[in-house]
Design brief:
Largest sheet: 9 strands, mixed
Number of helices: 10
CATH topology of the largest domain: DHBP synthase
Oligomer: single chain
Strand order of the largest sheet: 2-3-7-4-6-5-9-10-11
Mean pLDDT: 92
CATH class of the largest domain: Alpha Beta
């Protein structure tokens, strides 16, 4: 059944309304420093089910739980010295840790999709932090888009994907980061590339992060065809072919560009917005210029490969 979707500027009154709706078991869209999230009370199984329903999300793909601080995280999951070091260095921020789940955490079982681990993050965005404080509960919050589709970096992206399926969108402007959080397992494997790279972690903490091998889904964002537009997508394109909308990078101009200067930070921030533009165009296919597979480029290419995967 369709619902009326309201978008409100993320001021104090709107955050209070969002907290009220979360307390009533609803889910609301909220900005974070990575992408917009679809938040619900992580301790309420029915509320979490409404996230899956709104997103049409596969049941075996777990959700990230957002908490206000490390102390709350430690009541939900087990930490060892290495993961505690990561949390102390990068929280609040765009790092998700997949940790052993405590039996007495109070988190709804649907959140973990049957796994004995849980994905946790302490967000930095002031709107998400204010909502966590106002709601007073951990918030399960995957990206606020239909499952497998392009992640939203603005409130209007959320409305285009989930309008009629959720009641409230908090508009906090464009997401600063534009790409989802790095995910690292409790045994220091990289489960999903993101803004915080293994090389940065090595330099700043001395910890070595290894690349996870293929296998069972352990964390959000590991489905092969995740982050996909509704049109075929061709990678490593130096020029557009017939009927293609070309997303450029650096010297490859295209119809729109991730970054004309070749700046990977700018490209990450623009990635999903450019995919939305290409999907909304009148051309039936999308092409994307080569992006260096280093630093943030690895995370960008991870998203693009998933977007281009056969479905």
């Amino acid at each position: 059944m369709a619902v009326d979707t309201v978008t409100l500027p993320a001021d104090e009154a709107a955050i209070a309304e969002a907290a009220r709706r979360i307390g009533a078991g609803e889910c609301v869209a909220v900005p974070t420093e990575t992408v917009y999230g679809l938040a619900a009370d992580a301790t309420n199984g029915e509320a979490v089910a409404r996230i899956y329903e709104a997103k049409a999300r596969p049941g075996f793909n777990p959700l990230i739980v957002h908490v206000p601080d490390i102390e709350t995280a430690k009541r939900i999951a087990g930490f060892k010295s290495e993961t505690d070091r990561l949390a102390q260095r990068y929280w609040p921020g765009p790092l998700t840790l997949v940790l052993p789940h405590r039996d007495d955490s109070g988190i709804a079982s649907l959140v973990t999709a049957g796994l004995n681990t849980i994905a946790l993050r302490v967000p930095a965005h002031p709107v998400m932090r204010a909502l966590l404080e106002a709601a007073g509960v951990p918030l399960a919050a995957p990206s606020a888009n239909a499952s497998g589709r392009i992640s939203p970096t603005r409130a209007d992206h959320v409305a285009a994907s989930l309008g009629g399926k959720i009641g409230l969108i908090l508009d906090g402007g464009a997401s600063e980061g534009g790409i989802e959080s790095t995910i690292i397992s409790h045994d220091l494997r990289l489960l999903r590339p993101g803004p915080i790279t293994p090389s940065r972690i090595k330099q700043e903490t001395g910890l070595t992060i290894t690349q996870a091998q293929g296998g069972a889904v352990e964390a959000p964002g590991q489905l092969a065809s995740h982050y996909a537009p509704a049109k075929p997508l061709r990678l490593e394109a130096m020029a557009a072919e017939a009927s293609e909308w070309l997303i450029g990078f650096g010297p490859v101009e295209g119809d729109a560009s991730l970054s004309r200067s070749g700046d990977l930070v700018e490209a990450a921030a623009n990635l999903f917005a450019r995919l939305h533009e290409a999907e909304a165009s009148d051309r039936p296919r999308i092409a994307v210029a080569p992006v260096p597979d280093t630093g943030l480029g690895a995370a960008i290419n991870d998203r693009l490969r998933r977007a281009a995967a056969p479905r």
